[in-house]
Amino acid sequence: MGRATWYDADGTKRGEWTEEEDQKLVAYIDEYGVGDWRFLPDKAGLRRCGKSCRLRWLNFLRPGIKKGKFTPQEEQIIINLHSAFGNRWALIAQQMPNRSDNDIKNHWNSCLKKRLKRNGIDPVTHQPVANNLAVETRWFNTEYSTSSSAIASPSSYSSSSRSAHLLNKIATGISSRQHCVDRIKNILSDLGTTNIHCQEEEGEELNKDHEKILASGFQEEDFLMWDEEELRRFMEEISVMEFGTTSYDCN
């Protein structure tokens, strides 16, 4: 069953060629030769586009065109030419004047490419698949090695150094904080044993200690923002004294 035919809006015919159309095309080219394909259809009395006429002539009507089954010799020629030119079918057809580029392309895609794959040959590179796998493996190893080197680059060391510097600063701050807590413990111990009659002297001493604490880096808000319950828990944790048992009565 042949292909259907139809007409474009401008009256150009598409689809299967008739025997009458073939005769008109052959007669015109025999008399005038192959010229500009854009103007040939009108001169030949055909309602076809120039591209359709060109393909019909080159693939089916030109003298010496060979149709039918490819011989083993032709198949080997196609394989050799494809390894050199790739999918440049018109260029391959120039080396095989009795075959059309369309027939060569169709035979490659439907038969030869699949045959090479079955035989372990890559139809793109025309190399054994095992060799391609080895090349890909070497490429992967090279890329992995490069990536590993990048991970161990000086910039990474610089980042590590910055992180270590930050950790050192945090550790220093924690050490300074612990020092301030020890100072507070000493001050609270003094508060528990100091007589209330010495309030004026005690006030002066506390002011001095308070200034020393602030000078050591302890923030005043850290202590003043505690309520009574937080201070009680702090006293219990450092095991210095029970906040509720301190007596402030004068003798």
Automatic annotation (TrEMBL):
<feature type="domain" description="HTH myb-type">
    <location>
        <begin position="62"/>
        <end position="116"/>
    </location>
</feature>
<dbReference type="InterPro" id="IPR009057">
    <property type="entry name" value="Homeodomain-like_sf"/>
</dbReference>
<keyword id="KW-0238">DNA-binding</keyword>
<keyword id="KW-0539">Nucleus</keyword>
<feature type="domain" description="HTH myb-type">
    <location>
        <begin position="9"/>
        <end position="61"/>
    </location>
</feature>
<dbReference type="InterPro" id="IPR017930">
    <property type="entry name" value="Myb_dom"/>
</dbReference>
<dbReference type="InterPro" id="IPR001005">
    <property type="entry name" value="SANT/Myb"/>
</dbReference>
<feature type="domain" description="Myb-like">
    <location>
        <begin position="62"/>
        <end position="112"/>
    </location>
</feature>
<protein>
    <submittedName>
        <fullName>Transcription factor MYB76-like</fullName>
    </submittedName>
</protein>
<dbReference type="InterPro" id="IPR015495">
    <property type="entry name" value="Myb_TF_plants"/>
</dbReference>
<dbReference type="Pfam" id="PF00249">
    <property type="entry name" value="Myb_DNA-binding"/>
</dbReference>
<feature type="domain" description="Myb-like">
    <location>
        <begin position="9"/>
        <end position="61"/>
    </location>
</feature>
